[in-house]
């Protein structure tokens, strides 16, 4: 049938037209009143209810409340909301971030936050506060409310999602070891609003040490403060090392710390010791950084890549950055950047220059992130000292480069943030490598020559291959690099070979490894080995970069 279809009408106005009231005219266009009981489907697939000219895929017209949905479930999803354009009636998805603020000016009445409280906001380290009490938020005309509890451990400067179940009206925090502030966000179409703040004091302090700014140059000062719970008092402020550092007062809740013109560049630990009812004397610490004269802490970039992209690179070398961009948890950190190779913008993560236990696959450093030799930036072949740098614990990256010092390199690779088998989490490098199994999708035609620089640097098995972070099979596991196998479909089951940093030969079988931070393999055979020149297996000095 190649024609328009009309039901209860011999004058269809669309491909399919139902005149529910049998009141449409024999010719011409039905009136608005006559269309009120009509249903049409147009040639473009648009559906109209009570209109013969739908302007959207589904267009419903009624004098009031044209749409009703029964059985919807409140899933406490807080990233987006359904909204209706008041002028057109069109339904749209809108992110909460796009309507954040105290309240939408178009809502009258608007959303109101409610209040939170706690009947015992004080305890010693390990104190479990128990459940907060609160009044519910008033949605105004904005519809259902989504709650999110937030916490701050730096005096209210930075707020993050509270741990545990944080999307309920009354929150139950875990046991605390440091002073923590809490507030509750409430969101709907009308906007996002926040309750009052409640401080849970620990060991006599209602907030930890706040430093403004948290880094200073020689000759400059920083303001320090600590919040005290009722009945607590400051015993003393101190700093280590103390040479060139002076307090304006050592026994008040606020003080000023000044670095003399001769103060050494580096990290200083500020300590505030207080006495409190029931908890005795307790100490709180914060790291203050003295940067070289001329470094503008307020304009620091967050990574080597951002420095490069901002046109501020002066070549390979050390730079100062503010990793978290807030001047709080990581205020001013010195890092080494490679700005010239493989596109530049690389941050130094580690160097493996000594075949000891530091960077073997099963080393505890991968999980602990215990940095060492952080001021040693000697990347030449003469270096014999390993180092793990601070960016390992705060950098979120997806591009990695295993840079062998004297042998051909692995080409930089990207761990996908979407796809299969698993993806890189939006977390620090430490969190990803310690807790997840991540890899790129398998190859099935042998290892790609683009994995190496130069492309003909290695001969390798012509089976399956894959590269990434924390790869593993029953034979070979690797922290950073490439695994290969002679069988196309067994790359993550019985992989025989690997190249990179931190390789484990789990079964001590005939597997060939070029690795940094691992012993040479046992009982190697040619068909399962990777070769570089005439030396196919062994330890090679390597550097790990990320961006």
TrEMBL record:
Residues 295-359 form the Fibrinogen C-terminal domain. It comes from the Bacteria. Gene3D superfamilies: Gamma Fibrinogen, chain A, domain 1. It holds the Pfam family Fibrinogen_C. InterPro entries: Fibrinogen-like_C, Fibrinogen_a/b/g_C_1, Fibrinogen_a/b/g_C_dom. Signal peptide: none annotated. NCBIfam families: GGGWT_bact. This is Fibrinogen C-terminal domain-containing protein. It comes from Chryseobacterium hagamense.
């Amino acid at each position: 049938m190649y024609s328009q279809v009309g039901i209860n009408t011999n004058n269809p106005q669309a491909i399919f037209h139902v005149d529910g009231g049998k009141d449409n005219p024999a010719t011409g266009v039905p009136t608005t009143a006559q269309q009120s009981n009509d249903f049409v489907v147009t040639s473009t697939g648009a559906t109209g209810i009570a209109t013969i000219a739908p302007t959207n895929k589904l267009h419903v017209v009624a004098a009031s409340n044209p749409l009703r949905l029964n059985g919807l479930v409140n899933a406490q999803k807080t990233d987006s909301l359904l909204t209706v354009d008041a002028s057109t009636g069109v339904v749209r998805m809108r992110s909460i971030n796009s309507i954040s603020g105290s309240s939408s000016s178009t809502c009258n009445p608007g959303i109101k936050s409610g209040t939170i409280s706690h009947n015992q906001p004080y305890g010693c380290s390990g104190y479990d506060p128990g459940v907060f009490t609160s009044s519910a938020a008033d949605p105004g005309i904005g519809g259902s409310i989504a709650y999110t509890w937030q916490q701050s451990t730096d005096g209210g400067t930075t707020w993050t999602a509270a741990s545990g179940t944080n999307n309920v009206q009354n929150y139950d925090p875990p046991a605390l070891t440091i002073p923590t502030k809490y507030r509750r966000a409430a969101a709907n179409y009308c906007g996002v609003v926040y309750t009052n703040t409640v401080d849970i004091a620990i060991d006599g302090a209602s907030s930890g040490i706040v430093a403004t700014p948290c880094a200073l140059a020689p000759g400059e000062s920083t303001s320090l403060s600590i919040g005290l719970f009722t009945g607590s008092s400051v015993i003393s402020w101190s700093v280590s090392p103390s040479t060139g550092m002076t307090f304006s007062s050592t026994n008040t809740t606020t003080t000023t710390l000044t670095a003399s013109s001769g103060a050494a560049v580096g990290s200083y630990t500020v300590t505030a010791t207080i006495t409190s009812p029931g908890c005795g004397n307790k100490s709180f610490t914060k790291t203050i950084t003295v940067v070289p004269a001329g470094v503008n802490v307020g304009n620091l970039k967050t990574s080597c890549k951002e420095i490069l992209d901002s046109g501020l690179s002066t070549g390979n070398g050390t730079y100062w950055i503010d990793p978290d961009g807030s001047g709080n948890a990581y205020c001013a950190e010195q890092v080494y950047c490679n700005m010239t190779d493989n596109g530049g913008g690389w941050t130094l993560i580690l160097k493996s220059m000594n075949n000891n236990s530091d960077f073997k696959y099963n080393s505890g450093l991968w999980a602990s992130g215990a940095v060492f030799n952080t001021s040693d930036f000697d990347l030449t072949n003469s270096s014999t000292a390993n180092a793990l740098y601070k960016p390992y614990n705060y950098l979120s990256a997806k591009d990695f480069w295993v840079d062998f010092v004297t042998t051909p390199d692995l080409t930089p690779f990207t761990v996908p943030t979407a796809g299969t088998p698993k993806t890189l989490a939006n977390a620090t490098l430490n969190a990803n490598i310690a807790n997840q199994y991540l890899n790129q999708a398998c190859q099935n035609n042998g290892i790609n020559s683009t994995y190496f620089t130069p492309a003909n640097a290695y001969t390798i098995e012509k089976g399956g291959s894959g590269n990434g972070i924390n790869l593993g099979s029953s034979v070979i596991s690797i922290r950073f690099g490439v695994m290969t196998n002679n069988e196309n479909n067994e790359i993550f089951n019985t992989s025989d070979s690997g190249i990179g940093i931190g390789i484990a030969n789990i079964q001590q079988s005939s597997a060939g490894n070029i690795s940094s931070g691992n012993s040479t393999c046992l009982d190697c055979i040619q068909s399962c080995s990777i070769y570089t020149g005439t030396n196919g297996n062994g330890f090679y000095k390597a550097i790990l970069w990320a961006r």
